[in-house]
Fold this protein.
Amino acid sequence: MSGSNSDDVRRIGTDPAAFEAFYRAHVDAVERFVVRRVPDAHRAADLTAEVFLAAIESADGYRPSRGAPLAWLYGVARNVVAADRRRHGRELDAAQRFAGRRLVDQDDIARMEDRIDAEAQAGELYLALDRLSEAERAVLELVSVDGLSVRDAARVLGIRPVTARVRLHRARQRLHEQLDSFAAESAVTGPNPTEAAS
């Protein structure tokens, strides 16, 4: 459904078959987006479900000028994850957790845990990403990790493409500096014991 037109996206709010097709086409991408930002598999499952519920609620307002359907969905996902971070504590309340988990089974949870484990192995990269500003990191993740064009990333973030390009350039430069610094430290102190054991 990647070539969907605006009518196809708008129909997901009222047509179960359209929603199912949309969900199947994009659930893997949304899961990857969420687990890169949320280190707990159950919470990631809840938030993935919330992203699609939010997409249903806002589908009528979809406009192609805001990006391709997947870029629009990443914008929805970004808002859902940001709202979750603003909530008190790291856990959703029991009703939200239960509602989200009904949409996934144990295989889904296991698959997301595998993805989280794979992502966690890039510890130095995440540490370097954490040292970027939120604005720089957002553009870098959308372009380099989620595969959006700079123009689509700018639409998701509500900024001009030229601003996105500047932030992306700055983020890449700072990321390289951080990783070079980690490599120099590793050369002096030796490998991390957990890395040496693996």
About this structure: The chain has a mean pLDDT of 77. The radius of gyration is 18 Å. The chain has eleven helices and no strands. Residues 1-120 form a domain with the Rna Polymerase Sigma Factor; Chain: A fold (CATH 1.10.1740.10).
